[in-house]
Amino acid sequence: MNPYIMSILMCNLALGTIITAASYHWFLAWVGLELNTLAIIPILAKHHHPRATEAATKYFIIQATASSIILFSSIINAWHTGTWDITQLTTQPAPTMLLIALTMKLGLAPMHFWLPEVMQGTDTTTAFIIATWQKLPP
């Protein structure tokens, strides 16, 4: 992969983490998580091997599902509370759905079914990024 493209993708990873960590609004947190996910997909698929393509596809599907659950729980919370503030997570279905989505994004048990397969399909550096940096924003 071109070093310029790789540096842009790494900057997007950092930017997505910063946006998510600094946001007080559910939509901005979701945008940061999506930017982080979309920056790691080309890094996962940079090796033209069927296992790398399979790992990138599995990662994208799981992360997109978890992101949609996060967005849905924030919409439910905003509908009940009338605000998009992250600190106002009070209605009962929203925190449970958010917890499920974050465990999917982080790869925590019992939602860790995707993590070993994705790790096996990548190289060591990319697996290190997935195991460490990708766990910071959620």
Verbal overview:
With 138 residues, the chain is mostly helical. It has one domain (3-135). Helices cover 72% and strands 0% of the residues. It is built from 6 helices and no strands. Helix 2 (26-44) runs antiparallel to helix 3 (50-81). The protein starts with a helix and ends in a 7-residue tail after the last helix.
Rg of Cα set: 15 Å
Secondary structural class: mainly alpha
Distance between the termini: 28 Å
Q: Residue-averaged pLDDT, rounded?
A: 90
Number of domains: 1
What is the general shape? globular
Number of strands: 0
**Proportion of residues in β-strands:** under 5%
Number of helices: 6
Ranges with pLDDT <50 over ≥5 residues? none
Percent range of helical residues: over 70%
Biggest sheet architecture = none
What is the H-and-E element order?
HHHHHH
List keywords for this structure.
NADH dehydrogenase (ubiquinone) activity, 138 residues, transmembrane, 72% helix, mainly alpha, single chain, 0% strand, globular
Question: What is the strand and helix layout of this fold?
Answer:
Layout lengths: L2 H20 L3 H19 L5 H32 L11 H14 L8 H6 L3 H8 L7
In short:
The chain is mostly helical. It contains six helices and no strands.
